[in-house]
């Protein structure tokens, strides 16, 4: 009976090996940037950056989508990044994309995209770094950077200008009607 237990442990260990290997950080070269939160690595896998949501470039571009894509392209294209899995998220999403945190030279690029205002924290799914990403988004909003910058307000005309315009319009109509009636 004592000899069966080590065999079972060995079998369970072999079954867990793919999970252990899949959860390890690994390095890969970025060969294409799809948008502000998705890129392709050298083995042709698509990577969806965990915990962030950048404006979409599919269909009609959302505001700041091209800026987010350009920024991510400038930072990652042809660079070797370290991809970290999340402790509580699945390995892939429903479209088969790897779900990862991307680091370049020790810098969390997912966080950087939020800090520069080109992505927001993605709150739909729980991830290990969600609290940090939400805090970074709030800070970016307060600073007014990227997509959080305040739009210049249209100058509002003073009320008296509107009043003068209405009076002038009424006067013109009155004059026109009067001239037509004279004939």
Written description of the protein model:
Helices cover 42% and strands 20% of the residues. By secondary structure, the protein is an alpha+beta fold. The strands form two sheets. Strands 1-2-3-6-5 form a five-stranded mixed barrel. The chain is elongated and about 90 Å long.
Q: Strands, helices and their partners?
A:
Elements: H1 4-22, E1 26-35, E2 38-41, E3 46-49, E4 52-53, H2 65-76, E5 80-84, E6 98-104, E7 107-108, H3 109-115, E8 120-121, H4 130-143, H5 159-182
Parallel strand pairs: 3-6
Antiparallel strand pairs: 1-2, 1-5, 2-3, 4-8, 5-6, 6-7
Helix pairs in contact: 3-4
- Proportion of residues in helical segments: 40-55%
- Characterize the overall form: elongated
How many helical elements? 5
Number of strands: 8
Task: Enumerate the strands of the largest sheet in spatial order, edge to edge or round the barrel.
Answer: 1-2-3-6-5
Helices and strands: which structural class? alpha+beta
Query: Main β-sheet, in a few words?
Result: 5 strands, mixed, barrel
Unreliable residue stretches: none
Strand content: 15-25%
Radius of gyration over alpha carbons? 28 Å
Average pLDDT taken over every residue: 85
H/E topology pattern: HEEEEHEEEHEHH
Instruction: Give the distance, in angstroms, between the N- and C-terminal Cα atoms.
Output: 120 Å
């Amino acid at each position: 009976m004592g000899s069966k237990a080590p065999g079972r442990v060995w079998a369970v260990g072999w079954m867990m090996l793919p999970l252990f290997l899949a959860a390890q950080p690994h390095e890969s070269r970025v060969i294409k940037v799809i948008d502000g939160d998705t890129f392709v690595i050298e083995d042709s896998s698509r990577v969806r950056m965990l915990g962030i949501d950048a404006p979409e470039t599919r269909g009609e571009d959302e505001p700041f989508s091209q800026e987010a894509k350009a920024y991510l392209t400038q930072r990652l294209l042809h660079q070797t990044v370290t991809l970290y899995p999340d402790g509580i998220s699945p390995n892939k999403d429903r479209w088969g994309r790897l779900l990862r945190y991307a680091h370049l030279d020790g810098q969390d690029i997912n966080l950087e995209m939020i800090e520069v205002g080109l992505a927001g924290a993605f709150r739909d799914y729980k991830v290990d770094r969600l609290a940090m990403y939400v805090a970074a988004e709030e800070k970016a909003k307060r600073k007014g950077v990227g997509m959080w910058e305040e739009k210049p307000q249209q100058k509002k005309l003073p009320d008296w200008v509107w009043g003068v315009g209405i009076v002038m319009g009424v006067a013109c109509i009155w004059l026109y009607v009067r001239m037509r009636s004279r004939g």
